[in-house]
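In response to reviewer comment 3 from the previous cycle, which asked for concrete evidence that the modeling workflow produces usable outputs, we include below a single protein chain processed end to end. The sequence was submitted unchanged, and the resulting structure tokens are shown without manual editing.
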Amino acid sequence: MQPIRTAQEAISRLEHLFHTSGMKDEALLAYIEQLASENNKLKLSLHKLRASQSSKAHTTSSMHSKLTDALRE
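The workflow returned the following structure tokens.
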């Protein structure tokens, strides 16, 4: 069996199981979709925070080199 890489793959496989068993749990599907949505929001927040941190590191590095240049003069 192949690993599940996306929420859509998980939902598709779950729907296949529902079809095979003749059962369906809409609440479970909704919960998986909610978790996938929340996961995407967290990934976006993490990306923004990392970008912000690298920007701050660049600013600090720039300030350090300006200070070093000023001390040399």
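The chain is about 85% helix and 0% strand. We consider this sufficient to address the reviewer's concern, and the full set will be provided in the supplementary archive.
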